[in-house]
Amino acid sequence: MKGLMELISLAARLFLAWLFIYASYDKVWDPAGFADSVARYEVLPLVLVNSASVFLAWVEMIIGVFLLAGVATRSSALWATLLLVVFTSLMLYAEYTGAGYDCGCFPGQHDQHTAGLEAALRDLAFLAPALWLLFKPGNRLIFSFRLRRRRTSRISL
C-alpha cells in the first residue's frame, strides 16, 4: 500500500511540474502578452500589471522546476495550491462578470479558451494533485539535501 501511495505522489508531482512549466513557458518568454491577459481581469491597478505578470510567470516556472526535481515538494505544493485557488477564483469572477476573454492560462490558446466556469472546474481538478502533495509529498525521484548543524563547543569562563 505504501508503494502505491508513493507512485500516486510521484505521478501527482510530475503532473503538476509539467502543468506549471507548460503554463509558464509563454508567460516567461512573452511577458507583454501575458500582461495583456492579466490586465483584462481588471483586478490590479495598471501600475502593478507588468511587475505582477512577470513575477507570476516566474513563480509558476520555479514551482514547476522545483516539483520536477523534487526540491521542497511540500512547499512547492503549497504554492501551487495557493496559485490554483487564486486562478479558480479569477475564473469564477470572470463567469460572474460575464467577461468573455481568453483566460491567459496556457500557451497557444488565445481566444480559444475563455475564462469562466469551465476553466474554474478545470482548475479545481488541478487542485487535487496539489492537495495530495501537501499531505503525501512522497520520496521517489527527489533531489534531497540536508544541512548539517555544526556543533559548537561551549566555552565557559
From TrEMBL:
Its main location: membrane. GO terms for cellular component: membrane. Pfam families: MauE. The chain crosses the membrane at residues 47-69, 76-94, 124-143. GO terms for biological process: methylamine metabolic process. This is DoxX family protein. It is a multi-pass membrane protein. Residues 5-135 form the Methylamine utilisation protein MauE domain.
